[in-house]
UniProtKB/TrEMBL annotation:
<feature type="transmembrane region" description="Helical">
    <location>
        <begin position="142"/>
        <end position="168"/>
    </location>
</feature>
<protein>
    <recommendedName>
        <fullName>MARVEL domain-containing protein</fullName>
    </recommendedName>
</protein>
<feature type="transmembrane region" description="Helical">
    <location>
        <begin position="94"/>
        <end position="117"/>
    </location>
</feature>
<feature type="transmembrane region" description="Helical">
    <location>
        <begin position="62"/>
        <end position="82"/>
    </location>
</feature>
<keyword id="KW-0812">Transmembrane</keyword>
<feature type="transmembrane region" description="Helical">
    <location>
        <begin position="12"/>
        <end position="32"/>
    </location>
</feature>
<keyword id="KW-0472">Membrane</keyword>
<keyword id="KW-1133">Transmembrane helix</keyword>
Amino acid sequence: MTKKGFYLCLRVTQYLALLCIIGLEITQLVFFKRYKDAISFEESATWKDWFESFYKRHGIKYFYYVVIVITLIYILYSLITFTRRWKTGPYRKVIFVDIFFLLLWLAVGFTNIYPIYFDGSLNCDIKEEFKDLPGRLTECRAYLASMAIGWFMALLFLHTAIHSVYLWSHRDKIHAQNDKNVSYPNPDNPVV
């Protein structure tokens, strides 16, 4: 696989993993809402009440959701402008942005294990609470899968940061190769 193909594959894999995380987070919210409505059907639980309860059980979700949105915007921008940036890049700022996202996803990973400090474990064994409400087991599994894919995102950003450093160190060879492959005037790099 070429350097360009590998780098594009990393970005697409990040995008697909992020879509999986979004789907799993929506699944958790839906099943947690059903669970809270089922146990408090006599009292009407407000959105704020059950989201605060969700926060206590599943870590710092506000931060997680902000990181998901910021990452989604960056990855979509990166994929949309990939061809143009490949011709004119690589850029040093991409290295720093990838390291920034690596640190963000590491922080997300540690905030997702926040409940382990209160419950002492992160497993979805069949417990008494899961026997009556099977959706609760699905919620627990979605939480663990989302956490695992979040750590995978950190690993992907580590790989893209390393690959960005490699591309930056070999930028002259990449530009020479791009110049050989381009037989038409490049509108991004006009010749004066």
